[in-house]
Amino acid sequence: MPGLTILLEKKLAENAYLSKAQRFSATQMLLCGDCQRAGDGIYNQASRGSAFDLKLTLVTETFPPEINGVAMTLHRLVGALASRGHEVEVVRPRQSKDDFPAKIPYAELLVPGLPIPGYADLKIGLPVNLRLKKRWRENPPDLVHVATEGPLGVAALLAARSLDIPVSSSFHTNFHAYSKHYHVGFLKNAGLAYFKWFHNRAACTFAPSADVVTALGSAGFQNLHLMGRGVDTQLFNPGRRDEALRASWGAGPDTPVAMCVGRLAAEKNLPLVVKAWTRLRRTRPDLILVLVGDGPLRSSLERQFPEVHFAGAQRGEALAWHYASGDLFLFASVTETFGNVVTEALASGLVTVAYDYAAGRAHVRDGENGFLATFDDVDHFHSVAEHALQNYSTWPQLRAAARSTALGLSWGNVVDGFEKVALGLLKQPLGGVCVTNA
Fold first, then answer.
1. In this structure, are 160 and 288 located in the same domain?
2. Do 262 and 218 fall within a single domain?
3. DSSP labels, 51-108
4. Which of the listed residues 42, 159, 349, 373 has the most CB atoms within 10 Å of its CB?
């Protein structure tokens, strides 16, 4: 088909603005002698394979230097993709005057932002639609992955769609579920409707746990794909236990230490953690509670519970030392889409008590490597925490089993899954969607 080949080559040369995804789809007509039609597009039967270099732009309103599970997850994802030879750029709000864009191993574009109400130290990105369109028209990525649904995320979604650049998204945070914790429960349904509108305009939406995939599917979200979470078992491991750190909390070698890690914010259900600890002290008066993290509730919690140790925000090895220096992990949040802190606690060899959903349901086996309470059942959470303490003699076996579970949770497998779906999007016909479901 030499005439068609010459024509297509000419058209590709004339349309220099086409993204690599569009060029790939069209080029298949030049390279493939065995093509089949499917709807309005043309598919090549041969796989391009993972060796293909992807040019990806991640758009997010949370990313390091912020400290939270979503920021950590996205940082690991783009770092791994860059290490595999993909070209990655991160578009995010500038968090402070001292916040400068990274250049290695991925590039960053920092955009203006505004403080989030109730989280003065965090920013949402402004809707820089025109700036993104100009940037991507001149130098289009193969795929835009939008990780947050704020003004910056909407701008990126609309800009990419207007330029026919494939878009994927990910659902990380139950903001619609947060509404009752911030006295705006009347916005819950509106929030869910907005999220559905947003994510259904992407070719694929990644969700971090099977129960979130099920819930979103029931609510009318389309083209869902499971992307779980790994854990860094070299960083988080029981060998980092630090007796000097424990001594600073007033704990001796045999003193049990209960712990919770996360933002000190309303949606984390911290009053239940403190109440559970208070009840457990009836049995073990020497039980110490350490809260690791910072947030808008810290000052009020410190005033209410002066006997609790507040360790502040920790990161890297310091965070790992704190985990490993605890014994019992109490996690009462009911608003997680996953809960990275659960797998970090397992990796650190802690005895975990959590609700039966998200990371707890995925990785905690009740009575074997931790304990599970019926979701959002306060009385059962107390009962399970008391049961865990009553089984203090079995903690060494539970801790070993928790560590064993975490060793099977590889970030490499998570990145493999994302990479496979992302490259698959580029093999769809122009304007196609991913129909891979978990």
1. no
2. no
3. TSPPEEEEE-S--TTS-SHHHHHHHHHHHHHHHTT-EEEEEEE--STT-----SSSEE
4. 349
Q: Name the CA dihedral angle for 329, 183, 121, 235, rounded to a multiple of 10 degrees.
A: 20
Which token pair is 88? 């990655």
Question: Tokens at residue 238, please?
Answer: 């029981």
At residue 394 the predicted structure's pLDDT band, cuts being 50, 70 and 90, is very high
| Residues 69, 194 within the same domain | yes
pLDDT digits (tens, 9 = 90+) for 84-136: 999 999 999 998 888 888 888 899 999 999 987 766 667 889 999 999 999 99
CATH number at residue 308: 3.40.50.2000
- CA dist., res. 411 & res. 337, Å (int): 17
CA distances from 66 to 74, 121, 161, 428 (A): 11, 9, 29, 35
Residue 124 to residue 158: CA distance in whole angstroms: 17
- Percent of the chain topping pLDDT 70: 81
Asked whether residue 66 is domain-assigned, the answer is yes
Burial 234-249 (b: 16+ CB within 10 A, else e): eebbbebbeeebbeeb
Name the nearest CA neighbour of 339 among 239, 183, 211.
211
For 413-421, what is the mean pLDDT?
Answer: 94
The reply to whether 92 and 202 lie within a common domain is yes
CA 255 – CA 178 distance, rounded (Å)? 35
Q: Are residues 99 and 226 in the same domain?
A: yes
- Diameter over CA atoms, the chain: 85
Rounded Cα gap, residues 373 and 387, in angstroms: 11
Query: pLDDT of 8-21, one tens digit each?
Result: 344 434 443 344 44
The answer to whether residue 32 scores a pLDDT higher than 70 is no
Domain that includes residue 269, residue range: 238-409
Task: Look up residue 226 and give its two tokens.
Answer: 């499971």
pLDDT tens-digit series, residues 242-275:
999 999 999 999 999 999 999 999 889 999 999 9
* Whole-number pLDDT of residue 437: 36
What is the 3-state secondary structure of 237-276?
Answer: CHHHCCHHHHHHCCCCCCCCEEEEECCCCHHHCHHHHHHH
For 281, list phi and psi in degrees, rounded to 5: -70, -15
- pTM equals 0.81
Q: Considering the domain boundaries, does residue 11 fall inside one?
A: no
Contact in structure between 12 and 27 (CB atoms under 8 Å):
yes
Helical H runs in 139-187?
151-162, 175-178
pLDDT at position 368:
98
